[in-house]
């Protein structure tokens, strides 16, 4: 006799997970745009002016990171039949994104944080 296969009902979990990833990627792009803009009051010496090339590089980094992760999420979402079934097993996926996506997002945010702190502390 074969034991009954327990089916996991994902409910709305895949949609909520996808929406949270989308919010994180949108915020990453917004932070990159704000950094590209520069200080709110250029005349004040509180925040040092950053070279435009560095600003453009940070913006390009955030856009590439966001685009790459967004593409991964979209392809994975479509591959898992909108978060319902893992192609190999037929079961519900444990998460919408692969674990490396979270590591990459965390590393990207860490790099962005280090660049922002370095530009403020080092004139």
UniProtKB/TrEMBL annotation:
Transmembrane segments: 20-36, 56-75, 100-122
Keywords: Membrane, Transmembrane, Transmembrane helix
Main localization (coarse): membrane
Pfam families hit by this protein: DUF202 (PF02656)
One cellular-component annotation, GO: endomembrane system
Domain DUF202: 9-81
Location in the cell: Endomembrane system
UniProt keyword Nuclease present: no
Topology in the lipid bilayer: Multi-pass membrane protein
Matching InterPro entries: DUF202
Protein name: DUF202 domain-containing protein
């Amino acid at each position: 006799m074969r034991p009954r296969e327990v089916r996991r009902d994902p409910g709305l979990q895949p949609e909520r997970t996808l929406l949270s990833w989308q919010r994180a990627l949108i915020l990453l792009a917004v932070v990159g745009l704000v950094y590209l803009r520069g200080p709110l009051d250029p005349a004040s010496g509180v925040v040092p002016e950053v070279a435009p090339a560095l600003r453009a590089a940070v913006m390009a980094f955030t856009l590439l990171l966001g685009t790459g992760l967004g593409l991964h999420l979209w392809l994975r979402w479509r591959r898992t039949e909108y978060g319902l079934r893992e192609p190999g097993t037929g079961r519900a996926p444990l998460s919408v994104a692969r674990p490396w996506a979270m590591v990459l997002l965390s590393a990207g945010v860490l790099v962005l944080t280090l660049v922002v702190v370095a530009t403020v502390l080092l004139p």
